[in-house]
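TICKET #2291
ISSUE: user wants both folds in one file
ATTACHMENT 1:
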Amino acid sequence: MSTRGTIAVEEAIITPSTKWLLEETFAILNPGDSSNKALEAHAAKLLDIHDKRLATMDAEGVEYMLLSLTAPGCQGITDPKLAEKTAKEANDWLACQVAKRPERFGGLAALSMHDPEEAAQELERAVKQLGFFGGLVNDYQSIEEGSGREYFDTAKYDPFWKKVEELDVPIYLHPRYVSIKDLQPGSLYGDRPHLQGAAVQFHLDLSYHIYALCSSGVFDRFPGAKIVAGHLGENIPLNLWRASHWYNKPSKKATRPSKEDYNYYFKHNVYITTSGNFFTPGLKLCAETIGIDRCMYSIDTPYEDIEEAQAWWRTVDLDGEAKEEVGRTNAIKLFKLPLEY
């Protein structure tokens, strides 16, 4: 393997104590399948860090991965205390795994987002004590009350974003499946299960949350806070001109919560990755729209194949310097990874 391979920053794992989190997702993906075989096979891929995953990284030229707890993670746990306990245990386990090969792997913290103050404390612990390079949250936090969802664009979450800015680490916004209760007959996805998942639902749901963060004033109050959106920015870059155009109309501008438009925040507070969206024209559009320095390579292991991602990456016809930036340099700079560039 070249010592200057690619760096992938949205790569999923599960821990032995959090395998149970896969059960609801598995039920959504495989309705009517009560066997454990497929679930165990999926869990095995997520548990594997140092065996087949590392061997494939070596064979394909992936130098380094940032690992994070797979969706829905702690965002799928409605009980606050259990979510907090799960996050701490997952982060401790991942830190032990990373310590075995710190030159190949790093960690992003799992976080319960029920209590913004507690989330801030756990992020700080993960960064300062465990050596993690940021955090990852899976869209909204599931809760028992009201809509059953808590989004992170309200003033309630200011203590969290304040800590993010203070620590100067990014927060990765990752999509998730809706819960079983959102799949009842008569519901949006209950009547249209074919729209569930990565092809459609993921980017529709998460892009709403990202638009909300960019228009709520969060980044005015905490201009140093940074977020990362995978899958080529959850399709938002293609819509940035139109979204900003309408957001800047006098009737909107006079009453909007944020000082600037979506385009501004994507150029100052948002980064995007190629995870699971290996589409060269799309990557070029992102680079032209928000800047090559805000674009990073990712795979989405094990939901996407390392081999397929790397085969695509070898065909990407960016010039040498730009390809190096997207493939490794931008990630090293943003996450402050202990790698040379």
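ATTACHMENT 2:
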Amino acid sequence: MTPDPFEAGIASGWNVQQATDIANAEQLKTDVVIVGSGAGGATAAEMLALAGFKVLILEAGPLKRSKDFVMEERRAYPELYQQSAAMLNQQQSIGIMQGRAVGGSTTVNWTTSIRTPDKTLSFWQSDKRVEGLDAQSLAPYFEAAEQRLGITTWTADANPNNQVIADGCRALGWQYTKINRNVKGCWNLGYCGMGCPINAKQSMLVTSIPTALSHGARLITQAQVWQMSFDGERVNELLVRAIDEADRSLSRQFSVKAKHVILAGGAINTPALLMRSNAQDPHRVLGRNTTLHPSLISAAIFDEPIKAHSGAPQSYYSDEFVWKNGVQGRMGFKIEAAPLHPMLLASKSFGFGRQHADLMKQFNYLHASIALVRDGFDSLHGAGQVVLDEQGHAHLNYPLSKGFWEAAKRAFMAMAQMQFAAGAKAVLPIHDNMPMFESWQHASKVIAKTNFEELTTVVASAHVMGGCAMGEDPTMAWVSSQGKSHYYKNLTVMDGSIFPTSLGANPQLSIYAITRKNCETLIKELHERV
């Protein structure tokens, strides 16, 4: 087990506080303030601190460490996720899981690390006016992130849940790939989504944030940046509210003045903060084209135990259908396995009473596949919009499009075919009133005739992207390809909100690499200002 870096670090004098430790109405000053401590914010904090800048990290979530990660869903979801892992879009048709703790979603993700697909980067360049982020330009930054975070191909045997992906794809002649993971000394426990209790996951919690703190950075937790004020073309001040672990505002607030501001609060909170602050947005792009990789679930029952709660959550995926109809053709989807834990299964399946109880009794024999739909590449694909209520709180308006439901039908058919090819004795697409199928022939006929629609089909997401798009055309983008605001000289965005579309791949490695490249540029510019 790797020691908790915070234990020795805090004892040695790391500057780590809660917002309630700051005097009411106090004003803090720093070189760079970073809002958020996830993949983008922590990477930037490490690089800037190593470059000699005075860095302040503001994190709305609590500091939770390996000693707090007890592998229990009842504690992990309320302590580590936005809205206790029960966030929904406005239509209440998509369950959205986002981290809310020091390290952001990197603390609770499943460690899957995939480079941005070349087709996505090419589309950004040709259709979204993104410059300097082609595959060749990004390659050294991917390599640096992979080296820093121990990202390598998972060499241990796949657990049975993931082996279904490999076996089914191999039998059908479909493409499939072994997954790269950001782990060192992994014990193969399978509880990555509840925080790593042995610090093997190379999340921001145990890598970049400790390095930043060791080089003089300051971290304030449970600190919600509510608004920013502006002075012409510059951010003037940040207004910060102390909140408790349940996200309730306390009666204390303070302000921050910084020479440069980095927003890295994620693809809902970053545009929401800018909108609450009445930031310039003449082309009304803030909050728009928010994408999710909305995902569908297909369960399968096997004769032999699967024990999908045990072992690396994800070790195989298939891109057989991601680009089958082109970049802007019918929506493609990526097939992955999903780990199963009792609360997660119960909340992401249909049925009541005996039907639901019978499903739960099969827990150790259940496999789950997910199809991540590649959204946001054109108007037919669909995307969402971040909106504010009267109190200024953020919500996601995301109606699922006809194009999505057409993709859902193809995805359910593909997952069922793969599961039967891998030896499943029964398959259950997670859709209201869908029967348990005992053959591919029966499944394909019923799925083809089924009308999939909102609230009758479980749709989930753990990949929120966009809403503060990058590009060189301000009519489409709020920041440049380097993440620099088109309107404020001392404001940069470094998180997944800058993606102009979804990725077609799990996003953490894309955020690491693009942040590294853009932060390198920022450091040069900041040194030139001195």
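RESOLUTION: both attachments delivered.
EXTRA DETAIL ON ATTACHMENT 2: The radius of gyration is 22 Å.
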